[in-house]
Specification:
Length: 674
């Protein structure tokens, strides 16, 4: 549900908050250093790329209480499947924008406090680890970028910023239960420590889930989609000098799910840590380093004999990286950014295949490798009266190395031992944009850009099975390359109304897709291109206690294929709707209560690349309401899918999985403001 409580929910905004590390002088005392834990401010040219900003209210006021539900209100945002992070396989939680399709790997770059969140091996986003109540905002930029970590942003960038004590309060705790006796508990403590602060937070979600199999397809092995996940976060910021600030963040999470059949259990876990040094003096800088340790396991159950046929028992991976960005003083009307970033992904899988008839191990597999990317970038924003010009260049030195696939028989004899040749190269990218403030109410913008994505370790080396379909890996995959352009306008005739309209044309060349080779056999292949053209509209309005917010996107997307992928030519990319929209209406008087409802529509999609299995269009209604019981205690009611709409999330020749049905939540929220 969108943030109906904020009249500028979906605006292309520039930051107006106080800078972290800023000196504030008291009336009768020395200057006070106030640390807020933010990064450097966005530059004037950011608005040329049509960003959409979601406020804290929008992120925390959803029917499900989950971050992916909040992001889904930005039309054009999509996961690989329609399931949320309670009832999908974690490895399917890839994120893309602008109908560029996908194969469960994220084509959008998701950052949390400047750190890439994608799993180092798979490229999926661990949504269960990202608690909305910890965040201050989310900025979604649809379209390619060439800034920091730009090598992962072929479809766009989602920047999540954590909140500080001034926004979160000293204590914030909430507990919910729904009509299936599922629970959601969260708490955070945010004390100020001298001139700095710390935020300690935790969240636990668990429940029996629902049957993802339709009634007519259930059997004795069918079970509910149970889930049990937690995440714990610790974040701190302290001043080093009056204009230099040190930030530290740690995150630990674990998630366990059961999907469709008894014993079909999956789990994911991670431990992330980062250090960031931000300078806001005359020479501004942002120095960041991070480490990620992740793991994944999954058991595949035969849909005919209901026995274990594959145990993906472990997929350990490590992500290392960082960036340095420098903004030298270049005048009041110019901002220059010079920087470098590094990303290293290392991981491997361990899995055992079992006979569906005897239950004995038939194969033991081990595969993996190491990818790295070193990026150098420079970007400049120049403001000339009402016109802002922005441009950037980026060079990436990428490497795919140490790839291998090894398989042994059940008795331990070596059957396959492949070592793949190392590959490396340079790729250059550029982006240009312009913003013209025609008058105080109307701005026009235009942008053009290119982008790059290196295939993940998962795409290169890991085959998988969604029974009965086998999808093979492909160590020979080439990098994806994006070319895109867009034009748009932002219109604000009054403080109570804002509208943004964007038309875009994106061409993703050498796109990685799951290409059908035989009825039950697919392989990851580079196809010629995915072409997506469309329009995006966002608007919000306020009249007294009434607030409206909406977002819509229409995309005409097609795949281009030749050779083995020639049969795909002209088809719509798998899992890609042509139209999506979200509308929220809310009432918030000053009487201590509020209510809002969100109507969301997602057009029909195809399960497969040949456009044979349809996922029907779906329209859902969510609701959110609060009532203050006291100054510190609030009653909260939430409703998911109130129409109890049938949401088809998978359709493989008639074998169907369903998404979340109706759920009613009731909870209490206790808060101690700053």
């Amino acid at each position: 549900m969108a943030a109906w409580a904020h009249p500028q929910l979906l605006c292309a905004q520039q930051s107006g908050s106080a800078s972290a590390g800023e000196d504030r002088s008291g009336d009768d005392g020395p200057p006070i250093i106030v640390v807020t834990g933010e990064g450097l401010r966005e530059t004037p040219g950011t608005a040329a790329y049509g960003s959409v900003t979601l406020t804290r209210d929008s992120l925390t006021s959803t029917g499900s209480g989950r971050i992916e539900d909040a992001l889904a209100n930005v039309a054009g945002f999509q996961q690989f499947r329609r399931s949320d992070s309670r009832s999908s396989n974690p490895s399917a939680q890839g994120v893309t924008l602008r109908s560029l399709g996908g194969n469960a790997t994220s084509r959008a770059l998701v950052l949390l406090d400047g750190v890439p969140m994608a799993d180092p091996f798979f490229g999926y986003i661990p949504f269960n680890a990202i608690a909305p109540e910890r965040l201050a905002s989310a900025r979604v930029t649809r379209g390619g970028g060439s800034g920091a970590f730009g090598a992962g942003a072929v479809a766009g960038t989602i920047e999540l910023e954590s909140g500080g004590p001034d926004l979160l309060g000293q204590i914030d705790a909430a507990g919910f239960v729904n009509d299936r006796a599922e629970t959601q508990i969260s708490a955070l403590l945010a004390p100020r420590l001298g001139s700095g602060f710390a935020v300690l937070s935790g969240r636990w979600d668990r429940g029996q889930g629902f049957y993802t199999a339709p009634q007519q397809q259930r059997d004795s092995a069918s079970v509910r989609a149970q889930f049990d996940s937690y995440s714990i976060g610790l974040r701190a910021a302290v001043p080093i000098t009056s204009d230099i600030e040190l930030q530290a963040r740690g995150l630990g999470f674990a998630d366990h799910r059961t999907l469709r059949f008894k014993g079909a259990d999956s789990s994911s876990s991670g431990q992330d840590a980062s250090l960031r040094l931000v300078g806001r003096g005359r020479w501004q800088f942002d120095l960041l380093g991070y480490v990620q340790a992740r793991d994944f396991s999954n058991i595949v159950i035969s849909s005919t004999r209901f026995v274990k046929v594959l145990d993906q028992r472990s997929t350990p991976s490590t992500g290392l990286g960082g960036k340095i960005e420098l903004r030298p003083p270049t005048g009041d009307h110019n901002v220059l950014r010079i920087g470098a970033d590094l990303r290293i992904s290392d991981g491997q899988l361990f899995e055992d295949a079992f006979s569906a008839f005897t239950g004995v191990i038939t194969a033991r597999r081990n595969a993996g490798g190491r990818n790295s990317d070193i990026g150098l970038y420079a970007e400049n924003d120049l403001t000339l009266g009402p016109v802002t010009l922005t441009g950037g260049v980026r060079a990436d030195r990428w490497q795919i190395a140490d790839g291998f696939f090894r398989e042994r028989t059940g008795s331990g004899a070596l059957a396959i031992d492949r070592r793949y040749p190392d590959r490396s190269g340079w790729d250059g990218n550029v982006r240009l944009g312009a913003l013209w403030a025609v008058n105080p109410h109307l701005s026009l913008r235009a942008a053009g850009y290119t982008g790059l994505r290196v295939p993940t370790l998962n795409e290169l080396y890991r085959p998988f099975v969604v029974f009965p379909v086998v999808t093979q890996a492909n160590d020979a995959l080439q990098n994806e390359h994006l070319r895109g352009a867009e034009i748009g306008l932002d219109w604000r005739p009054s403080r109570a109304f804002h509208m943004a309209l964007t038309a875009f044309d994106n061409d993703l060349r050498d796109a990685v897709a799951n290409v059908t080779l035989e009825p039950n056999l697919r392989q990851r292949r580079n196809i010629d291109a995915v072409e997506a053209r469309g329009v995006e509209l966002t608007a919000d309005a306020q009249s007294g206690i009434l607030r409206l917010a909406g977002s819509a996107a229409y995309s005409d997307a097609e795949t281009r294929g030749s050779g083995v992928a020639a049969a795909l030519d002209g088809f719509r990319p798998a899992q890609t709707p042509r139209f999506s929209a979200s509308t929220t209406i809310g009432l918030r008087p000053d009487a201590g209560w509020s209510v809002a409802a969100t109507l969301r529509h997602v057009g029909a999609q195809f399960e497969d690349d040949l456009n044979t299995d349809v996922l029907p269009a779906v329209t859902t209604l969510d609701a959110f309401a609060t009532a203050a019981l006291s100054d510190r205690l609030t009653l909260v009611l939430r409703g998911e899918n109130l129409f109890d709409t049938r949401v088809v999330t998978r359709n493989q020749s008639g074998s169907i999985d369903l998404g979340a049905p109706r759920a009613i939540w009731i909870g209490l929220k206790a808060a101690l403001p700053r």
